[in-house]
């Protein structure tokens, strides 16, 4: 049972409104959210997430709406936004904004929150900055030829956008809200029989 299904005529805006737009309000209210594209190589995952200049995907539309929502409440609330971008390949984590840092480890902080130790976090003020960093990071993604695609991205790419907010009013208890938005472009989910590197595929998709 699916919440919604799209036919071949659906455009990027329709997909975004039906799947992701509703998450912005919760994010501003301090709730974490995750959006990911899943499917075999060549089915349009990266197109759905990234899109084109004429038909932007979920990344751009979500970030534009997020910063618009921040602007609309900025008279009352003080915000800070940061981003990180990593890939998971063969169960190893790599910082796409600083690939020379090697493989990174997961750590649990004092509040029980799982963090990627040593990941690069960049403060940002608009969607354009995040997209420029994401495009730079995409050039570092691991790619290998498969039977389905000569330049398939063989890693999971995870964009994390962190939103911190607190009231500007000093008379109000200074509650700090912190939320994360994860937007993920997964590696191809095709069956091993359809890929020229079945052993690697099995590890990638764990």
What descriptive keywords fit this protein?
206 residues, alpha+beta, Kinesin, seven-stranded mixed beta sheet, two-stranded antiparallel sheet, 6 helices, 29% strand
List the total number of helices: 6
* First-to-last CA distance: 24 Å
Count of the separate structural domains: 1
Would you identify the regions where 5 or more consecutive residues have pLDDT less than 50? Answer: 191-196
How would a textbook summarize the main sheet? 7 strands, mixed
Order of helices and strands: HHEHHEEEEEEHEEEEH
Q: Which bin fits the share of residues in helices?
A: 25-40%
The count of strands amounts to 11
Identify the CATH architecture.
3-Layer(aba) Sandwich
Strand content: 25-35%
* Structural class based on helices, strands and sheet pairing: alpha+beta
Specify the overall morphology: globular
Fourth CATH level, the homologous superfamily = Kinesin motor domain
Average pLDDT number: 86
CATH fold-level topology:
Kinesin
Radius of gyration: 18 Å
The CATH first-level class comes to: Alpha Beta
